[in-house]
Amino acid sequence: MSKRVYEDIGRGISCIDANYGDFGMACFYLLEHGGECAVIETGTANSVGNLQRCMADKSLDSAQVKYVIPTHVHLDHAGGAGLMMQSFEQASLVVHPKGARHLIDPSRLVASSIDVYGEEKFQYLYGTVVPVESHRVIEAEDDMVLDLGGRRLRLRFTQGHADHHFCVWDEDSKGWFSGDMFGLSYREMRFEAGNFVMPSTTPNQFRPEAFIESVALLRSYSPERMYLTHYGELAYSDDLAELLCQQVAAYQSFAPLYPGQNEALAKHIADYTLTHLAAVAPPDGVEACRLVVESDAALNAQGLAIWLGRMNISP
User: What is the pTM of this model?
Assistant: First the structure.
């Protein structure tokens, strides 16, 4: 995806940049079928203008939006939900039951994110988080099927990154809208020799065994493609699924080595990741990934530290 607001990626799907920090850091998707639309992920309040531009170019009316579907309620995935629901008066918000109350009243989400980022960076990344009216919320069930103009979207609960996470299976495209359950693969991580994925273990509900089980669930559907939030469509392979699980297992072994030392743990994760990237990336490609790897390693270290404290694991 070049530096365009959105890109048609086929099968009735548009990938839209979320305007989250730098271009290419997060995206969300507009799915069109049978005269109806679904927005899968929402980005943040800063993302809504890009969606409106995409819909205007396609001559789509707001009344055609039937569902707004964040995979989980972390604010880079769901922070724009309230504002979008104000724009799409006919739409229902479909959310995991453990996350629904946080979008109806997002005050705790906002407060915890400000604790992580600080007030100034929070405003830059997320803008104003608008609550969603409770009567417009559908609490998802595992294996629930949504009908979008005759197109079936199946929701599967997938713990590991967050307890309030599900993924969306689109039979028509043989693809998963995977949220953070198939890791991160920014455009800098795509190479001629192969692609790279990195787990996301951000605070505060990382569960490594559940993460690996969820990847196995996604794999069991024999997908052909993954629609990542970070970032864009990725061709599926079993090798990538295995790489993701290997890294999760490695993270488990790293965390006890650095109790209370998040910076040292983050450096270990970043060094480990960059070493593995070198298997598919030329030297200049590894360097091009350094900043994003170090940034996500710092967030991953925070999640691992919380997991370590919960498990009370010693080196």
Answer: 0.95
What tokens appear for 205 in the block? Answer: 């509900």
Of the candidates 161, 165, 163, 109, the one whose C-alpha atom is nearest the C-alpha of residue 132 is 109
Helix (H, G, I), strand (E, B) or coil at 206: coil
Pairing mode, strands 137-139 and 13-17: unpaired
Going 159 to 47 to 62 to 173, the CA torsion angle's sign is negative
Q: Are strands 65-69 and 92-95 parallel, antiparallel or unpaired?
A: parallel
Dist. CA 287–CA 78, nearest whole Å: 31
User: Among 9, 6, 37, which Cα is nearest to 234's?
Assistant: 9
Which residue type sits at 64?
A: Q
Q: Could you identify the residue written with the tokens 């990934």? A: 289
Q: How far is CA 133 from the centre of its chain?
A: 23
Residue 40 identity (one-letter amino acid): I
Can you give the pLDDT of all 315 residues of the chain as single tens digits? Answer: 557 899 999 999 999 999 998 899 999 999 999 999 999 999 999 999 999 999 999 999 999 999 999 999 999 999 999 999 999 999 999 999 999 999 999 999 899 888 878 899 999 999 999 999 999 999 999 999 999 999 999 999 999 999 999 999 999 999 999 999 999 999 999 999 999 999 999 888 999 999 999 999 999 999 999 999 999 999 999 999 999 999 999 999 999 999 999 999 999 999 999 999 999 999 999 999 999 999 999 999 999 999 999 887 655
Q: What's the one-letter identity of residue 192?
A: E
Please answer whether residues 64 and 37 qualify as being in contact, where contact means their C-beta atoms are separated by less than 8 angstroms.
Answer: yes
Length of the chain: 315
**Cα→Cα distances 3→22, 59, 125, 159, Å:** 10, 22, 18, 33
Pairwise CA distance, residues 170 & 236, whole Å: 14
Identify residue 280 by its one-letter amino acid code: V
Tokens representing residue 110 in the block: 């906002």
